[in-house]
Design goal:
The protein has one domain: Class I glutamine amidotransferase (GATase) domain (Rossmann fold, 3-Layer(aba) Sandwich). Helices cover 22% and strands 32% of the residues. It is built from five helices and twelve strands. The longest helix has 12 residues.
Length: 205
């Protein structure tokens, strides 16, 4: 029995993700203690809220080093929204260092390029790497639900697997690096396209 761990660091909509995993016939488990990482085969780091607060919460619950080890050991990982941003080295939203698992930074939307901040609602994305496990059975421009005021800038664009055009700015909304998957949108709020993302993740080995 493969358990899909959902990390509870008091900064996320856990139960929306939990129910979505159940809907695609996965077996979700809320993880509130880092020792529980040893009991699961895949992990999801969801997130809503601020960069610094999330990192402080992960630190206070002693998740940071065990999570880094879990990912380093090649276990499938999915970061959602803030969970994507936390993988980076830094963020313009706060002063804390990110997890630094992926080289890049989180930037605030430039008001000269983006008129409507935050980016809220449905948007169609452009897939750039169909080799990513997340994009099995997808077409070129699926729609997903977004809500965010900051975005990820990757140092290595080769790990980008999808981007979106919003006003006059295009930016990364999905990445794949070996066992590490991450998306800026909310698959748990994105109807059938989002469920397909989560189903593909549950099938990763």
């Amino acid at each position: 029995m493969e358990l899909i761990g959902i990390i509870d660091y008091q900064m996320s909509n856990l139960y929306s993700v939990y129910k979505a995993i159940e809907e695609v016939n996965g077996i979700p488990k809320i993880i509130s203690n880092p020792k529980e990482l040893k009991t699961i085969s895949k992990v999801i780091l969801p997130g809503v809220g601020s960069f610094d607060s999330a990192l402080h919460s992960l630190q206070n619950k002693n998740f940071i080093e065990p999570l880094k080890t879990y990912i380093k050991n090649g276990m499938p990982f999915l970061g959602i929204c803030l969970g994507f941003q936390l993988l980076m080295q830094s963020s313009e939203e706060g002063k804390s260092e990110g997890l630094g698992i992926v080289r890049g930074r989180v930037k605030k939307f430039d008001k000269e390029l983006v008129k409507n901040i935050p980016h809220i609602g449905w948007n169609s994305i452009q897939i750039t790497n169909y080799n990513s496990p997340l994009w099995v059975n997808f077409n070129t421009s699926p729609w997903f639900y977004f809500i965010h005021s900051y975005y990820v800038y990757l140092d290595n664009k080769n790990i980008e697997s999808a981007f979106v055009q919003y006003d006059n700015l295009s930016f990364t909304v999905a990445m794949s690096l070996d066992n590490i998957m991450a998306v800026q949108f909310h698959p748990e709020k994105s109807s059938q396209s989002g469920l397909m993302i989560l189903k593909n993740f549950t099938k990763m080995s």
